[in-house]
Amino acid sequence: MSNLELELNSEFVSNFEEMVSQMGKKQKISMIKKLEIRDKMIEFANNHHHSANGEPLRFDNDSFPHIRELYEEGALHQHITLMAGTQIGKTDWLIVYILAATYCGLNVFYVLPKDDMRDTYVTEKVLMRIKLSPFYQEVLKDSASKSKDLINFGKGTIKFVGANSSANFASFSADIVVVDETDEIAIPKHIGLSIGRMTQSIHKFVRYVSNPTGINGFIAKEYEKTNKKVRMFPCDKCGQLSELDWYESMVKLLKDSDGNTVGHVLRDREWTSLSISDINIKCPCKNDKGENICDGNLCRFSEEADWVATAKSTKIGYKMPTFVSPNVSMRELYDKYLDGLESPSAMESFYTTCLAAPYSSSGNKVSEDVLERCTEYDPEFSFILKEDQAYADEYIDKPCVMGVDTADDHWDITISHQERKGDPNLHRLVFVGKMSPRDGLYFLHELVDRYNVICTVIDHGPQTLQARAFQNEAKCTVWRCVFNSKAGSSAQYKHADGTIIINRREMLDKSYAVLKTGRLIIP
After folding, report:
1. CA-based angle 185:189:191, to the nearest 5?
2. Are 183 and 163 in contact (CB under 8 A)?
3. What is the distance, to the nearest Å, from the Cα of residue 189 to the centroid of all Cα atoms in its chain?
4. 241-243 and 400-406: which strand pairing?
5. pLDDT (average), residues 221-229
6. Do 201 and 174 contact (CB within 8 A), yes or no?
7. Where do the DSSP E strands lie in 410-491?
8. Where are the alpha helices (DSSP H) in 311-354?
């Protein structure tokens, strides 16, 4: 099989012909149209289409081998859901598909989240691809329409709409519906309106494409209804095909005795930030006890890599993370993962755009059950509750520590003391509240005096000047906290400038572990 040309798998042809022989008349008509579109897609991809950089499409092991199945077989499927990351070639596949379909006489209803996104997409992606191809230009030359919302290409028409208005879903009869970036659509019921545009068609081909959001997002739910295809890679040692799972093959999470995540290490123990080679993807093969039994590496560039269905369904679904593409190094993805450890929003972006996986931070959410573990009734120890703070109703003579989390509009403050001598891991909360930066620093100094605070950790930013001022004036030791995604699991103290450097995500995990195990007593 040529690396640069697409063809149809012989085994697939045999199964496909058997399936067609059992169809009724309308189904056969529709299937003939699918075959016509499939042949035209291959012709366009091999001979006429150019990507955004002006280069012809390539499907060898250095470019987009992972997406060739969608060109060779995709047009023959009634319904495809693509839950995808970025940089995997989905834009060119969709454009080749809709151009081939309209060239063959079908009408396409193409839905994007908003009108302005539609305008940008048609101008910068669809019309630009057409401009790069002499053949496409020749086809478009005599078209009645080539605007941002309606393009006649060959015998059919593509109507592009934004999903922000229900008025956009009227007066167009479609054979194919493509809903792009489904999870950015603010009104999900509009996706249903788009499907209604195919009522009169015998074809009714559907394509859902999006980066996922949460587990309850549209694309994740639709993917669950499909045969759930995943990309499998062979191991260079045991030969077994395995899915590249980030936490099974790239990163090992470190847990404490209670099962809480407290850090991570790369599964490729030989790689360092000074390594010239890329990070190896370790084989996840395990024995019955869940122990890794193979030290081999998964081969992303192997011709034996294949799409494997993990469920049974007539609907076809692909989970296509960024790392299925040879154009992206695992080192790049690991750097993005490290950024995510510092910022929850960056971690969400890593999941949705790189792992093509729904993101949920629910695992470390502080639930009522978690807080309940920390509560302890003490008749001699009561709290006064106010709108913006709660605090102990008595003088605290024990040494206390204070934490200050700063933001532009408010600061969050907690104060606790060591509950039992000789047990540094058990603390009792004596103050929790908010203050406005407009109040100045006098409130913090008052808390230091009131609760006998001997040590404070305060955010270095965004209120850097005030944090420095408090550090210089306070009657206790003050450390300014700096977050660094590349920091280790242990805090790094810089005595020269009074800063402490921590890995935000790993410190949040440790803080959650303190709550989960009840090592912070709250009233």
Report:
1. 65
2. no
3. 23
4. unpaired
5. 96
6. yes
7. 411-420, 423-435, 453-459, 477-483
8. 330-342, 344-349
